[in-house]
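Entry:
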Amino acid sequence: MGNQFLSQVREADVLVHVVRCFQDPDVLHVVGPVNPERDIGLIETELILADLETLERRRDRLEKKVRAADPAALKEMPFLLRILDLLGKGEWIGLREFSPDEQVWVREYQLLTAKPVVFAANVGEGQEEDAVLGQVVEQAKTRGARLVMLSGRIEAEISALEPEDRAEYLRELSMGEPGLVRLIRTAYELLGLITFFTAGETESRAWTVRKGTKAATAAGKIHSDMERGFIRAEVYHYDDLISCGSEAAVKEKGLFRLEGREYLIKDGDVMFFRFNV
């Protein structure tokens, strides 16, 4: 998809890089033998080149403003040239630390090489200590990236099963949960996201918000009127619901509480918002 693909990737907040580690003669590799270090390098080179192209265009526009003595352009240009130099040396921008002002520019540039990365190592059975997988482990350390190991084959088999059969299959494989769940959780952590729930007799829903979100703001996630007319939140935790067995039992054990608009939502909270408009 070329540039269309790269433009879509620029809109993402986290890059998930799926890396082949499994050996299978029936599944050919387009480049040659299975070599994660080479594959990661090829993709990252493409991302670096794409960022270079983006910043070179910005430099050309900025030069005109510099010649016109534009104060903002004069301030930004040295930083832009420094980033171009780093990319030209093949450096991954996400490993660099920037001042608050510089972070504003980096976000504006939408650099692919500045985004957090998760390496999803697509492994074969019993490959946990394999040398091939070790290449991905080292690359993750070098890049300051997260690493999740999963098997694409097993994940495909799990997704094809009925929900009631998946738990048994996971037990047979000695897996507590699917690799996809671990991948999603890792991405949520990198993005600073948490989930709260609303539950009733007819419907239960999960809502995604950022860590540090206050109760009134979370209510607005459901409907703006709920934030505007927020009165209070009735709260208990999902873990308490599971351990107690029912909402009534949660209340009996004193685990049901009232919180105000400044309450910080916790991952797994079950919320009922009182409001009036």
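The radius of gyration is 24 Å.
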